[in-house]
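Archive transcription. Copying these from loose printouts into the bound notebook so they stop getting lost. Printout 1 of 2:
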Amino acid sequence: MKHFLSMLLIAAAVPAMAQKADKVTDPVDLINPLMGTQSKPSLSNGNTYPTIALPWGMNFWTPQTGKMGDGWAYTYDADKIRGFKQTHQPSPWMNDYGQFSIMPVTGKMRFEQDARASWFSHKAETVKPYYYSVYLADADVTTEIAPTERAAHFRFTFPKSDSSYVVVDAFDKGSYIKIIPKERKIIGYSTKYARGPLPNFKNYFVIYFDKPFVSANAWHGKTLAKDTLEIQSNHSGAIVGFKTAKGEKVDMKVASSFISVEQAELSLKRELANDSFDVTKEKAKAVWNKTLSRINVEGGTIDQTRTFYSSLYRTLFFPNKMYEIDANNKMVHWSPYTGKTMPGYMFAGTGFWDTFRALYPFLNLMYPSINKEMQQGLINDYKEGGWLPEWSSPGYANIMVGNNSASVVADAYIKGMRDYDIETLYKALIHGANNEGPITAVGRSGVKYYNELGYVPYNVKIDENAAKTLEYSYDDFTIYQLGRALHKPESEIGIYAKRAMNYKNLFDPSVGLMRGKNQDGTFQAPFNAFRWGGAFTEGNSWHYSWSVFQDVAGLSKLMGGKEKFAEKLDSVFTLPPTFDDSEYGEVIHEIREMQIANMGQYAHGNQPIQHMIYLYNYAGQPWKAQYWARETMNRLYKATPDGYCGDEDNGQTSAWYVFSAMGFYPVTPAVDQYVLGAPLFKKVTLNLENGKQIVINAPANSDDNRYIKSMKINGKDYGKNFLTHSELLKGATLDFDMAAKPNLNRGTQEADFPYSLSTEKK
């Protein structure tokens, strides 16, 4: 207990009691899409942009403050907007594809991105998931946007002017534009993408205005075309002009397609029809409220409630739909692998290294039907590309480590997804687990060493070898779990159960942590547990040593038993934020974010350690998980532009908050369990897709009362440190009696601990 008391002393003071939020009726209007936008390459407070879109929509829109091709498309501290960009960008580090922009100007015919840019203020900016509005001071124009899944509705309010314009910028790297004045129409395509190759890639768009053009010009590069309204060049665009009265509103409808202009037309007519701008806006708002209302929270502060729904909003975008609905109402998609139009589902824009941890388990609990579509999309990834993606952007991106598609596939099936071709996905997992891919981030880099030695060696010029070993070991466990669920013979899947124990090969008892190991069986030397990179991925040994999701009991045993294990967990918070950046030659942003958080070695701003708080439940000290989960929510999340503590990463860091606020977390995807923390709100209601409800009551909850004194499920006392997915799906009422002091007797016996492979084997 002395270690715990010392941790209490370093905790930041908690703000005074704030106003409580009653039951939420319009959750979408509590969201701040600017949460996380005050970011830059050297320090991420989320690295997000305001995403104006529908949940999992094919196309997103965002105001663009950055230059063409800059991954930081919108940054809160910027002064000027260069355009309103259609985007599919998962993160600034991955950059974008399928992008073009729209920008109103007045006075001179300015179309280059710097010349057309306008000053703006957040004071004259309204940002909602379903609606964006901003006053562009230099143009004296207000721009409004309302989205659909594959189209959008713009409304420009112009001043009195004989020279009001709208610029369409199809960007560089190869683009096409054609203006058709008699139809008040512009068509074109962009081929710009950041990560490829992408065969036959084009993002086709079609744009209609409700006002005739007074002037129409195509342009390329810095040159205004004089004798043509159609241009194909490296960098093509259009500028159309109007004569406007003061306060005159000009509507513009736009849609795009990865297949053809005709398909874009079809989506525009299907999704926008003859709707007015206000109807489009209200429809989008209704979709958001319906989607968000799967979870209702009550009894938190206004700030907590805003932070919850702002985080929930971020979990509902990626991976986003790449499939379209053709003239015969059939699902079709452009394939990033073959360049052809193919039947069926396709999704893109996610990195499984991040999202296997909580985002996909969250979808399996709250939005299983969309993940069923995503699983069907993975089948098409495999059939068309030969591998499952580990990072899709939108094809195979050569970044990050692990073979975590195995976790994403296995968890969906084990959590109840059915009626899709799971056998093909199982074959895809076996293929990926036993072969190196055409790039290091597909299949398994170093697989021959891993399968022969039980680890990827440190000294054979394979980067991030310890991280790969630990993740492959967990991924093997998930394959074993799926194989068992599919009733595969032990002779076929037993090897994966064996490999699931490979994590032990990297544990060095002399330091009590994971460490790179050479081909001859010796550990790497010299060793510094605070050294980032090298054997690890965006972290150090203190972060990655906990990556034994499948067998925390086995890890605890290696560390000397549950008491020693808990002390090791304590050390993460009591150690100073020391770091060694010599592997990188500079302080990468993930290091800086750990350093400034004032939580020791706990680097919540990156994914590897995010589950670690919940491991106290496997050590018989669940009250520490309750304490630190609340501390992390209090300190590191807020619905403000600097509201995240590192990269938000496609919903993962947000999903951590959403799960933790509900009071439990999926430490081990592909297992039918969630590990308990403690709820943040007095009441949370989960409206499941199957029509059942999970009601989480904690009426005594407060900032002081963060510990579970006792708990009941459906009226019966419950003392375990985990919940089961299958039981929750039946509907449940969880009653938490919260207190200001930890209950040092609850959840302390091994029978109360969550699942571990080694204890199951016993």
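Printout 2 of 2:
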Amino acid sequence: MTEVNSPPRLGGWTRFVTARPRLSLLVALVLTALAVVAGSGVADRLGSGGWEDPTAQSTYATKALEREFPASQPNLLLLVDSGSASVDDPAVAAEADRLTARLASEKGVIGVGSYWRTKSPGLRAKDGHEALIAAHLTGDEKATNDTLDRIAPALRGTHGPVHVKVGGIVAVRHEMQTIIKEDLARAEMIALPVTLLLLVMVFGSAIAALLPLGIGIVAILGTNAVLRGLTEFTDVSVFAMNLTTALGLGLAIDYALFIVRRFREELSTGAEPLTAIATTLRTAGRTVLFSALTVAVSLAAMLVFPMYFLRSFAYAGIAVVLLAAAAALILLPAALLLLGHRVNSLDLRRLFRRGRPAQAQAQTQAPASGEGTAWARLANLVMRRAPFFALATAAVLVLLGLPFLGVKFGTADDRQLPAGAESHVVQQHIRDGFPGNPGGGLEVLAEGSATPAQYTAYRAEIARLPEVAGVDGPLVKGDSAYFTVLPKGEAVDSAAQRLVGELRSVDAPFTTKVTGTAAVLVDSKHAIATRLPWAAALIVIVTLLLVFLLTGSVLIPVQAVLLNALSLMAMFGAVVWVFQDGHLSGLLGFTSPGSIETTLPVLMFCVAFGLSMDYGVFLLSRIKEEYDRTGDHNEAVRHGLQRTGGLITAAAVILAVVMVAIGTSRVTNTKMLGLGIALAVLMDAMIVRSLLVPAVMKLTGTATWWAPAPLRRFHDRFGVSEGGENPPGGAGPHHSAAPPRSATSHDVPADENGDGSPNESGGVRAIR
């Protein structure tokens, strides 16, 4: 218990962050201003691809074909609509030839072809009123975007008897980048005021509410600068900016919530601001550090995968977590020290309390034990019916996760975009109105000298494969050639994926490599499958170690991992039911491609697992602190839920608001990421932390705190907890129980909600 007149216990970190608070804030202000400058324009340097494995056979073949046979890899398509006339009408053909020649004359454009020059039936719509001009834009994503910006305005629109729309991979990616930047700006405009309103409701004080929001903004701006620096050395996905915003606001607010709440509690016991800061950093600050480490490790696991889409989220996530924790542990204590008791200023809840003195007086006279609070009653109810709550909640989570058993993995395409997006319209017209299987062909790159007879024999060999509908080629250039293979089924269905393996198994007198949409999917699935066990092992092992260091228990870390897995099952089941199967697609405004992009489950697992552990660490640290103090297992669980339940729920709701704001994006992957993680966070806070954790801990009883002697000694030496050092004779997994708590002059009445915020008289129950 914090003594009112006890001298402050200043550790080295406390002395560091409180020595010159004004100077610390000034330096932070300057660094933030520099981050704004350094991070400006970062979105223009980010890519919208990165789903493929850069070391895969399909990636090598794609790059080789782009280099040697650019016409085989068109990334720009012009959909030419002749209206009521036929595409073979002389006036239409003349205008189409003029457009083709104009496109071929542009810098950075190669491999131009069209229906009117090749008469290929695959480039002419079945109704005869639409046809295609295809080309390849050279360079990296930035170069192709610049070329598209330069040439597209003159190409799209009405030209005499035809109307032109722009599509192709380059157009899809460019439109995706533009929409994501617009949606991100709108999400920030939604999230910031709503978050501030929720913080005011949690804290009451407008001053206290502004502090977490400020920490979140600092974390976001700092991470944008980090991402801008990373673009000088590696590819970074534009989708990572969404994660930066969500985690920057969400985690910074989480960390600041717990630190500001603990600081206000210490002030309410009569402690001076410096003493309150010292206690806060020794308790909540230490827990924030452990929480940040668990989240960072979960995100770092994505570095195991070769796709820069996933690696980008690791870069952005680790940066924003560390910046959020640093801001909460350095800048926030300096600001709190300067504010002191003024942190409770501008209490906006007073506006709603006028005229209700009787209720306010009743609140100030709540029993000190806190047994009447809603969270304490919930904890008591759950522990009295522990078997029921454990089985029922686990069954519900498993049931919600069942749709994931039917998951189908696919690749990201134009259907990520809104139905009205120009590039989506073009690709949909091609899918619906053109013959064959547009976009579903497989290319076989042949390298090495060969005779025409050998090429002919190889073509006949692959034509005999049962899943092959037709073979075109070879087109030969020097010692290289390529064949186009059309599968019988859909572009990326199971048959097309089997065909990839069959093509790669065909013997040939030259080296062959297979690419195409299905081949990229096969290689991506292989890259994820071979590396996923390593990523999962990294997350699980480090999480077990960190939670053990925090609790000293062997069972609690295992429980934490398993219970987190249950909440993630519900998230994945909902994602498949909604985004793959298309339920609620009309309400949410997206086009279901009938599959889940291969990398999305990995990303969502790493992010959601880290956030779930974030809340788990805060709950477990408070339970451990109380158990060390009293030795009463049931009281520790009840007290931990009572003291953190309201705050964890508030933090989860705020983070969910941020994720839902991100989920309003018009790009399906971003919508899936935002809404899926919002669901996981709410399920974890409201079901797992509130019901499942106390029920399971009740069932395991005091065995929860068991650890073998060698691990107990290890924890005695290296372990920490929110309560700081174990008190002499304190209770714990290998200590005798401490004497029962007795009332003191500092045991002031608890607030009505039991969340640790000051009640009307300014008092809270003392935290020891």
